[in-house]
Specification:
Methyltransferase, Cobalt-precorrin-4 Transmethylase, Domain 2; three-stranded antiparallel beta sheet; 41% helix; alpha+beta
Length: 301
């Protein structure tokens, strides 16, 4: 996602009122999935927090404080300190699985108005890291984008459903990253790298503590861990490739003199073990799993 600071850099523009106006009119053009205008002439509170929360619970984006609904950069007398304090939501209690400190989700670029105690603010909001809530009148409220330029709040049941889906995506992304890291160290042309774990750390822990079964669907589990019964038409998952190669290679090395530990995998008879196309298989399996994760609406690293 491009942003106002990126646009300034790419176009060699100074950060001022004219530049922000040009960006809003030429690039943003109107409020949408990734942008929100907040005039906020003299104060900032719920409206700005709601906009930041809604974008953080979607794909991220930009909130422009001091910009009218028509895209006019009028500015605001609100100071950076006041804006920071509002976004911190200091009365809210922190949680392990949700975020209430909205300032942690933002990068704020003040846009000065020379000769006047006024500013506009371009707030870059990151996409979902974990569920984000507004704290208002002692209650925790989740805001989401609904349509290209609207925001709505959701009840606790929908918030929990959102969290479950976010957690599912987080698990799939982390599983892919772990597999890409460790499978990427395997190759027909390399010796088995020292330090490769016998068990994939994240995936193993998430399997043992019930995280995978709690949040992943049957299709997710099948793609990741495989399905069926070994020897009875089992369909392997992408994890099987890692465990299969590492287990076979370590067993093979254990049966040979120590000097053989420096041999490349192809020299250990890997073809006869069914891994003769290992490099291609790794790329294909990772690409297939990445495509599956994307098809579920999640972004992979």
């Amino acid at each position: 996602m491009s942003s106002y600071p990126d646009w300034l850099s790419a176009n060699h523009r100074a950060n001022d009122r004219q530049a922000l106006g040009d960006y809003v009119m030429e690039v943003i053009r109107a409020e949408g999935w990734l942008s929100e205008y907040k005039a906020s002439a003299s104060n900032v509170d719920y409206g700005v927090r709601e906009a930041v929360c809604a974008l953080a619970n979607a794909r991220g984006g930009e909130v422009f404080v001091g910009v009218t609904n028509q895209g006019v950069v009028d500015g605001t007398t609100v100071t950076r300190e006041a804006l920071n304090q509002t976004l911190r939501q200091q009365g809210a209690s922190p949680g392990d699985w949700y975020e209430t400190d909205l300032l942690r989700l933002c990068e704020i670029l003040p846009v000065p108005f020379p000769g006047a105690p006024r500013w506009a603010y371009a707030i870059q909001v990151r996409g979902p890291d974990r569920p984000t809530f507004i704290f208002e009148n002692g209650q925790y409220i989740m805001a989401k984008r609904s349509g290209s330029d609207s925001i709505r709040t959701v009840d606790s049941r929908e918030a929990m459903a959102w969290f479950r889906e976010w957690r599912r995506g987080d698990i799939l992304r982390k599983s892919y990253a772990e597999l890409a890291l460790y499978l990427g160290q395997l190759s027909l042309h390399r010796q088995l790298p020292d330090g490769l774990p016998d068990r994939l750390p994240f995936i193993s822990k998430a399997s043992e503590d019930g995280t995978l079964l709690t949040f992943l669907t049957a299709d997710d589990l099948s793609k990741l861990l495989g399905s069926g019964i070994p020897g009875d038409g089992r369909s392997p998952g992408v994890v099987d490739l890692y465990y299969g190669v590492v287990s076979w290679a370590k067993d093979e090395l254990a049966r040979r003199p120590p000097a053989n530990r420096f041999l490349a995998l192809r020299d250990l008879g890997v073809a006869t073990a069914g891994y003769g196309n290992l490099d291609k298989d790794i790329l294909d399996r990772l690409a297939e799993f990445a495509q599956y994760v994307r098809s579920q609406g999640f972004v992979v690293p």
